[in-house]
Specification:
The chain has about 450 residues and is an all-alpha fold. It contains 21 helices and no strands. Keywords: Cell membrane, Membrane, Transmembrane, Transmembrane helix, Transport.
Length: about 450
């Protein structure tokens, strides 16, 4: 692999553009959540319907991240990154001006398409430039944006109304666009006429979208189960794998991904890791409010150590891995995840607040270590020419795990809304998931590490 040498100022500008773009997806998936009640009130829609403002963003990003990663692999990241930022900026401005819920949902869908270009493009640029040290910065920005999103969204909504959570995006998006166009460098090639459509593999994309969206909709509907829906998901998933193994230019080269030392174990572990982590993150607040009597603000403060510690652990994760190696760091992160969710099985009406805070600290550390470690493994194991699509799949794995967690939280919630929530059943399930994460990591990391430098 050849390394592109750039002047330090241009390198810093390119990194700033990449970081500005990659923070937008986690920021906009979390910041808008706290604005749902004002949106519902202003647009005159039920809250259950208004939640589609958040749900459609997750579903769209889940599908578009790997698709746009494929485009970035084929045509280069510069034009795609700039186009994504331009679309996201237009969609954010339109969201702020929306006067109906269907229009706002449509704008959020377009916004998700635009910001979905950022992470896979960043992975392609980092791979092209041969500077893996930037991975820590990307992971830190992603984690921090997700953690501060609810706080920032709450402040903006209180000060300037819910429209402000969309206007605040514009300086970041337009600044990232300008910096990327000036600093990332020209793309290596342009697609032949009609070649991009063939390379993207429309049939594979449709089957992938049907599988992912169908699975997530099923999980969001739990504890209700749709047998026809489950059958449709299995059929779509089977069809996707069958098609991708035979397509001349597959959207996802499943043979390359499944090769020895490939990213499949990394992606699987990341889905399950996020399932366990977000199971605790989303499962504890209802219990704190309905069983222990804390109000929403107090419950949020008690959960905040999870997010805060995850940011600190991500920042320190790079030096820790350089000092001790990635294998010990990942296994330690898996062990702390197991300990954190297992501790929740002991929670009850007499659990003191300090125990919840302490458990949050324990849960935050593995998010930082495993998020960074698995991202680096994904980067190292992405087959040649597939860095963008694998980077997109990595982000999709994050969303899938989080939405699966939401579904399981709903499945373990009491049937009678007047009954207090009990997190222990969910915690048992999450403990089993965390144990599987450790098994996957232990088996997969037996091979010599290739990035402990």
């Amino acid at each position: 692999m050849t390394t592109t040498v750039r002047p330090p100022r241009r390198t810093r500008a390119a990194l700033a553009a990449l970081l500005g773009g990659t923070l937008l997806a986690p920021l906009n998936s979390s910041m808008v959540a706290v604005a749902l009640t004002p949106i519902q009130r202003d647009l005159g829609e039920p809250l259950a319907t208004t939640t589609w403002v958040v749900t459609v963003f997750y579903l769209t990003a889940c599908v578009c991240q790997p698709v746009l990663g494929r485009v970035s692999d084929r045509v280069g990241p510069r034009r795609l990154f700039a186009a994504g930022m331009a679309l996201a900026a237009l969609a954010s401005a339109a969201s702020a001006a929306a006067t109906s819920l269907p229009l706002l949902v449509l704008c959020r869908c377009a916004q998700a398409v635009g910001v979905s270009a950022a992470f896979p493009c960043a992975m392609v640029v980092i791979r092209r430039d041969g500077d893996a040290s930037r991975l820590s910065a990307v992971a830190t920005v992603n984690t921090t944006a997700g953690a501060v999103g609810p706080v920032l969204g709450g402040l903006l909504t209180s000060w300037a109304g819910w429209q402000a959570v969309f206007w605040v995006n514009l300086p970041v998006m337009l600044g990232a666009l300008v910096l990327a166009w000036r600093a990332i460098g020209p793309d290596e090639r342009r697609p032949e006429r009609g070649g991009l459509a063939r390379a993207v593999d429309p049939v594979g994309v449709v089957l992938f979208a049907a599988t992912v969206v169908g699975l997530l909709v099923l999980m969001l509907a739990l504890p209700a189960v749709s047998v026809p829906g489950a059958v449709a998901v299995v059929v779509a998933g089977t069809g996707f794998l069958w098609w991708e193994r035979r397509a001349a230019e597959p959207f996802v080269d499943v043979r390359a991904l499944a090769a020895a030392g490939g990213p499949v174990p990394v992606l699987g572990a990341f889905v399950l890791f996020n399932l366990a982590y977000y199971g605790a993150f989303y499962g504890l607040p209802p219990w704190l409010q309905t069983a222990l009597g804390f109000d929403a603000a107090q419950a949020g403060l008690l959960i905040m150590p999870i997010a805060a510690t995850s940011v600190v652990a991500t920042v320190l994760g790079g030096p820790v891995m350089r000092r001790f190696g990635a294998r010990p760091a990942l296994l330690a992160g898996g062990g702390l995840l197991l300990a954190g969710v297992a501790l929740i099985t002991t929670f009850g009406a007499a659990t003191p607040a300090w125990a919840v805070v302490l458990d949050g600290v324990v849960l935050g550390v593995p998010y930082g270590l495993c998020n960074l470690g698995l991202q680096r493994l994904m980067y190292e194991r992405a087959p040649a020419g597939m860095t963008g699509v694998v980077g997109g799949l990595f982000q999709s794995a994050r969303y899938v795990g989080a939405i699966l967690a939401v579904g399981l939280v709903g499945a373990f919630s009491p049937a009678d809304p007047s009954e207090p929530a009990d997190p222990r059943g969910l915690a048992v399930a999450m403990t089993a998931v965390a144990a599987v994460v450790i098994i996957i990591l232990a088996r997969d990391l037996r091979r010599p590490e290739r990035y402990d430098q």
